[in-house]
Amino acid sequence: MVWRQGAGVNGEQQIEVAIIHRPRYDDWSIPKGKLVPGESDLEGAIREIAEETGYRVRVGRPLGEVTYVKRMGTEDRQKVVRYWSMFAEGGMFTPTREVDQLRWVPVAEAVDILTTDRDQKVMQAFASLPALARTVLLVRHGSAGSRSSWDGDDHSRPLDDLGRAQSDGLTWLLTRFDVRDIVSSHYARCTMTVEPLSSAVGLSIREEFLLSEDGYPGREHDAATMLRNLGADNSAAVACSHGDMIPELVHRIALEDGYEIETPVPSKKGSVWSLTFSGQQLIAAEYFPPLAN
Hints:
The chain is an alpha/beta fold.
């Protein structure tokens, strides 16, 4: 769901969304396409948007998935399409044989123009919550061996080879969002996990005691409040912490806000929880497993 802020009535800004016309089907739809081998869902979504619209995008909140059956030759096949809200940073549409028109229209107009009910429902899911929201990317540090096999101070236990590979994968994922702030537990394995991101986006890492194994116990509410206040609308903040804290933090925030979430809450080393807030209210949550195992 590619969107931007356009000029509305009386010069006031309004949300506009991109819809495309496909001559093969003579329909108006939301950009989508098939994955190539080895490609993650999010990679495929970003690539397809670039191919079909010509725009570069920043990732926002998840919009769920649509399942339907399509006739392929002599058999029916189930199709599953995942959607995200994505802000258009820039670009230019060029007509192709696959997509010959692109229109930027207000959401209400888009619902009327879209051909299929399933696209209309995705558009309505996008419109049901604020487009201008904050994203907090809660990262579990990468692999750092085991606590029992480390002879030194546990605060200084570094990432191992797998952890460094996970950190590189995280950098690709996290830079798909508009990261404006990076905070981390002061433990070495946490700061090392987000150092490549820090270098990539040119931001320093702020150490946050509440995200550490020393500062979290007994101050769980303070840690959740701190996360709720990170970042700004239409941008993202990254917070790196520990595996024995992240599931409880995510569950606490979701429970307080009445947001349904899977339990037990997963949190593998090198994984990310994308938490979307409107004000301080959690409106969406998505788990990204580690890109290296």
